[in-house]
Design goal:
Length: 190
């Protein structure tokens, strides 16, 4: 009987182990993912649907300004002159040389523009004398700019004499600021 008992124990153990191996453990099945939220609004029924063979229309660039921007205009420097003179000083030549690069770019990008060289003088002297001196300053600046490649036909001149000062104090530093040429870009209306 000992043997039967031993066999019985082995059989019970085998059945128990076999039952464990075949027993399926219930595991929690993960919930299905929630439906993805639509990120793009539904198209109206009147809008045609694009197919892969239809190319997307090219994006239209923003319209370009027909005027040089303020930053470009601000890079144009004034050229200054000595008292009672219309000859270019070394600092005036350097300013005009730097300006010539900006002016070429403006004329290339805005061909409908004309550049005006304004001549100015300080308050000393008669109005007639200062008009003539300021005109001579504008002319010498134009001659320089034409010499470095700016088209003469796009350069206009105007003399303001002492009529449009940038500084109104009666001091040498202020007068120096007024003895100048100033270049502006103007649209032509042809």
């Amino acid at each position: 009987m000992k043997m039967n008992r031993g066999v019985l124990l082995v059989m019970v153990a085998a059945v128990s182990l076999g039952a464990c191996a075949k027993k399926k453990v219930a595991t929690a099945t993960p919930a299905p993912p929630p439906p993805a939220a639509q990120q793009t609004p539904a198209r109206p029924a009147t809008q045609p649907t694009r197919t892969a063979s239809t190319p997307a229309p090219a994006s239209t660039p923003a319209p370009r300004s027909n005027m040089p921007d303020a930053a470009t205009r601000a890079r144009i420097e004034d050229a200054y002159f000595d008292y009672n003179q219309h000859t270019l000083r070394p600092d005036a030549i350097a300013a005009l040389q730097k300006d010539s690069t900006e002016l070429r770019d403006i004329l290339k990008d805005y061909p409908a523009y004309k550049l005006t060289i304004e001549g100015h003088a300080d308050e000393r002297g008669s109005a007639e004398y200062n008009m003539t001196l300021a005109q001579a300053r504008a002319e010498v600046a134009k001659t320089y700019l034409v010499g470095v490649g700016i088209p003469s036909e796009q350069l206009g001149l105007i003399s303001y004499g002492k009529e449009k000062p940038v500084c109104t104090e009666s001091t040498e530093p202020c007068w120096q600021k007024n003895r100048r040429i100033h270049i502006v870009a103007n649209a032509t209306h042809e």
